[in-house]
Design brief:
The chain has 439 residues and is of the alpha/beta class. It has 15 helices and 16 strands. α8 (145-158) runs antiparallel to α14 and α12 (254-265) packs across α14.
Length: 439
């Protein structure tokens, strides 16, 4: 970032804070929006991983005035060139990279969006912060408890603005629901339920190993993960169902739903956690992570119950996903569609459905950009410290499942008392990679 542009970001934040979120527009119309800011004053974005959420994140941030994409990186050159061509159609030419380190070397990049598989998040976020970039990293922020903690430390050391892709925190109806929970109207809340029932998820078919597709740098895609032959099941979307790269539904949907349970209860780490489940829907498919899981987190004054299931849509309260705060006076049920309250007898008034207002990913990006322009991350809706806590709580559940033990969490040492559980707190790093060291 040039000195002139750094000065601009420090001095004009107050003018840009609170600027309205632009409505969703198609790519063909995006080019018609002239920026009110000069070229030297724009925020330039580079995206690492542009196949799924990385691309959605970019589309959202480009709806904010003064933001421009100048660089894309992906290890799949087929995806990379396709995305570059799409941006070229709206008169937004970009530099393309297969090596994320070269993108980080580009001094004109101010913001880095990380939309890669989970096992790359820590390495890339730390490197981006060290390179002086602000970072938007997809959820879960890290793929292990140790990684999450390192990512927190990196943000503090390098003073970057870091937002995590738990975009529901920017949805007005979610904010209103949590404010209602905090009001105390529900009475004593003894149980919180969060769940994800994914009826659309079918078995992952067993496929043979095969050749690496043309244009794919598979060794770089593996990165620190265990070296394995190429298998289409482990590539692109389905990486989520293999322990090498992610944590299944727990770290895919759980970080959203459990995040709101923790936020509503103003909770940190539990005292104990136990999990039971397995591959009960599709026992013979190729996935490793459980398709059915119930996890109970014991806190001082309440229990948090997580449920997940594939191949089923009718979860608790007849909903595919959500979080429910069950109090003595009533129950608040919240998901992406809205929230409502049912009363316990005559103890309180029910609240009818309060619907989602839309564009929450854009709102989340606006919150991120506002923080950068103000030079102050204190108003971020999902700072790395908050996202790290949620990701670690989700990891606790997965570790309880994998050890098949009821685990106690030692609040003094911030660790488990069981050695087998301690070993799962850190993801294995292979192929010459190692955890980032901050010095």
């Amino acid at each position: 970032m040039t000195n002139h542009r750094r000065k601009f970001l420090r001095t004009t934040g107050s003018l840009l804070l609170g600027s309205a979120v632009l409505p969703a527009i198609g790519a063909d119309l995006l080019a018609a929006y002239p920026s009110r800011l000069g070229a030297a004053d724009r925020l330039n974005v580079g995206v690492i991983g542009v196949n799924g959420m990385g691309w959605s994140d970019l589309q959202a941030i480009l709806k904010i005035d003064g933001v421009k994409c100048i660089a894309l990186c992906d290890v799949d050159d087929n995806v990379l060139q396709k995305r570059a061509a799409e941006l070229q159609k709206i008169n937004m030419p970009v530099k393309t990279y297969n090596d994320y380190r070269k993108l980080l070397d580009n001094k004109e990049v101010d913001i880095v969006i990380i939309g890669t598989p989970d096992h790359w998040h820590c390495l890339m976020m730390v490197a981006a912060c060290a390179a002086g970039k602000h970072v938007y990293v997809e959820k879960p922020c890290g793929n292990s408890i140790t990684e999450c903690r390192i990512m927190e430390e990196a943000q503090v050391k390098y003073k970057s603005i870091v937002q995590v892709g738990q975009w529901q925190r920017s949805a007005p109806h979610f904010q209103d629901a949590i404010a209602f929970v905090h009001s105390g109207k529900l009475g004593n809340i003894r149980t919180v339920k969060s769940w994800a029932y994914m009826g659309w998820m079918k078995p992952v078919p067993i496929l043979p190993d095969g050749p690496v597709p043309a244009g794919v740098d598979y060794n770089t895609w593996l990165g620190p993960a265990t070296k394995r032959p190429f298998n289409a099941n482990r590539f692109h979307f389905n990486f989520r169902w293999f322990w090498d790269y992610a944590g299944g539904l727990m770290t895919d949907w759980g970080v959203h739903m459990i995040d709101y349970a923790l936020l509503g209860m103003k909770a940190g780490f539990p005292k104990q956690v136990v999990a039971s489940g397995g591959k009960m829907a599709y026992p013979d498919d190729a996935a490793e992570t459980p398709d059915t899981l119930t996890t109970i987190y014991e806190y001082e004054k309440f229990n948090l119950v997580w449920e997940q299931a594939t191949g089923i849509d009718l979860g608790p309260f007849g909903l595919t996903h959500g979080t429910a705060f069950i109090g003595n006076n009533g129950t608040l049920v919240l998901n992406r569609e809205g929230w409502y309250v049912t009363a316990e007898g005559e103890k309180m008034q029910a609240v009818p459905m309060q619907k989602d207002q839309g564009n929450s990913l854009v709102r989340h990006m606006q919150n991120f950009v506002d923080a950068i322009r103000a030079g102050n991350g204190s108003n971020l809706h999902t700072p790395i410290q908050e996202a790290s806590k949620t990701a670690q709580v989700c990891q606790l559940g997965n570790i309880a499942f994998r050890t098949r033990e009821k685990l106690s969490w030692n609040a003094t040492t911030n660790s488990f008392d069981l050695d087998a559980a301690k070993k799962l707190m850190t993801a294995g790093y292979h192929n010459g990679y190692s955890l980032p060291k901050l010095g």
